Amino acid sequence: MSDQPGHFPGASVIAWASRLVPRVRRAAWRREWEAESAYAWQRMHGSGEPNRLQVLRLRMRILTCVIDALWEKKETMTMTGLSNDVRHAVRGLVRYPTFAAIAVLTLALGIGANTAVFTLVDGVLLSPLPFDDADELVAIRHQGREGADQLPMSTGLYGLYRDQATTIEDVALYRSTVVNLVSEGDPQRVPVQVVTPGFFELLGATPVTGRTFIDAEGTLEGERVAILSDGFWESRFGRDPSVLGQSLDVDGRPTTIVGVMPADFGLPDRDARFWMPFRIDPNRAPLAAFGAAGVARLSDGVTLEGLDAELNGLVARLGEHFPEDGSVEFLQSVGLAPIVIPLQQEVVGDVSRTLWILLGTVGLVLLIACANVANLLLVRAEGRQRELALRVAVGAGRTQVLRTFMSESIVLATAGSALGVLIANGALRLTLANVPADIPRVAEIGMDLRVLSFTLVVAVACALFFGLFPLVRYGADDIGTQLRDGAAHGATGRRKNRLRNGLVMTQMALALVLLIGSGLMFRSFQALRAVDPGFDSEGIVTARVSVPTSEIESWEETEAFFRALQDRLAA
Hints:
This protein is of the alpha+beta class. The protein folds into 3 domains: 11-80, no CATH class; 84-126 and 351-527, no CATH class; 147-334, no CATH class. Helices cover 56% and strands 13% of the residues. The chain has 20 helices and 12 strands. Strands 4-5-10-7-9-8 form a 6-stranded mixed beta barrel. Helix 14 packs antiparallel against helix 19. The chain is elongated, with a radius of gyration of 37 Å. It starts with 10 loop residues before the first helix and ends with a helix.
């Protein structure tokens, strides 16, 4: 930097610091600092050549311009920034509490319904299964007669896949059943599951106490053992830490407790009270007795297509692996073929379509709510034309006026989403308390960061949606002329009401779609109730009786027992 009177050291610092100043004040701020610094430099030269100490003092003084620039930025943002717009919007809405309450409640109902349904969708469909590397888990089913039959797994095919398939690390069977649990008082029918040893290791699930099943317990001669669910451990044993080794009377036989699973484990049946070993005789494992579901874990780098191809090859060569089994010819005649699908798809089942339709329905409800709020904002904007015209007259720019509308939209959407989360939480609790038994993964449903992020996105989308219409209404460059003309003529006319009429038509169209859909669903429900079952069901009840094999072993004794029971009931 030259030391001539027309220049001064530190001019580049002022030029750089000016970039921190808001554009509306930048030029004036820079002129003030440059003029002051140039004057001080000229005064130093008036009394002779300045020494190094004087130059250092001037440079230090000029460095303070950075602090001044930051302060100028803060002051300007405080006066004209978003925070000021939000405060102004809040004060404006407080002056009209009825309008604000209606708008917020309308949004809260729409956002709350969407949040509640998305929580169900996220917990059931979108969240991965709570197992290690859940994307590697697959379910194995079978089809016959060109897809007309949907079959699970047989113990014979289980042994074949376990011993011969190289594209899977392991495979397991599981089956839901009901047993007689005898304790003090009357016996109870308790839902349980039988699983092959290695089932829990395949899923990567470990018990909170005790162990899982060993291979010897999956044979006919194996010891009778059980692994408790967390709920059964609490309700039956009060979380007694010494529960291991205690005995249960299951179907008249003592069964030793060897472990307890954690509370979040519920595959494949969340109602199962405990698990027992799937007892298989490897020498008499039938091929055609399809009575259990199959689950497997893919080997590293293997795809669903690769596993499917290998299993189809094994099924095509059943005669080689089971040369003496008479069911091989029958299975090949019906075109038996394995079906491999992700385990999550198997667990979710057909409920996915229902949940997606439900989410789309509440999405339409939210669109109706947003259209309603947009109409309210347009009416409010028409009533504020004199106020807005006065702001334009005293110097407010087009951006500031339009930012006023968007600030109100943000405040309404924020308040609506906050209240909507509370409504969704209450609705979710009520739903989970009365959820049907066939809804999977209910224990995993709950609000988390993903759900709150969805709510935030919905709130922003709503603010942009209904905040857009006032911007469109006053989006021309000459906003001052529009406001003055609107204030003078009362803002009447077909052109000015076009947006509101369009929103009303949109609301009616969406409501009509929902009404038609609801009517069709009600009609289908009525038709299902009116279906003739083919017999008179009036006054008829059903009951299921199960006799433990430890009490009655032969078929002749079983037949005699039920005949006697029938005679006693008839009497």
